[in-house]
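#onboarding

Welcome to the new folks! Below is a worked example of what a typical request in this channel looks like: someone posts a single protein sequence, and someone else replies with the predicted structure as tokens. Don't worry about understanding the tokens yet, we'll cover that in week two.

Example request:
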Amino acid sequence: MLLNLPSYTFRVKEKEGKRFVFDRLRKRYVALTPEEWVRQNVVEFLVNDKGFPAARMGNEISLRHNGLARRCDSVVYDILGKPLLIAEFKAPGIEITQATFDQIAHYIWQMKVEYLLVSNGLKHYCCRLNYDSMQMSYLKDIPSYQDIIN
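Example response:
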């Protein structure tokens, strides 16, 4: 499926009628669902086009906050290992509504993560959360890794 991202090459295999894609961050093959296709493409975009170090990223990460565990589609960490950006993905056929975005943003506020990225592969929304003013500002583009660590 074509996405609103540059084209990348992936290792894909088929086993027992199911397709799998190699996840560079988990270093294993995972089921190739529409949501997974978006995740893999956005990760490649972040690494190849935005300079995010793959070594500071993880897929399907469980983060704990106030005793509650929350599974995140992808997480980018700062140099100290603190979550800096959380990315959530939807399948291309799933529209990202304000309600969807607000639901995802709700638990991000509680975790004190500075950036939120939500994408269905066709539309991408990135925002910065300011905890002093309790404001969420939408960014025009997905920033580079250098821009978010400075």
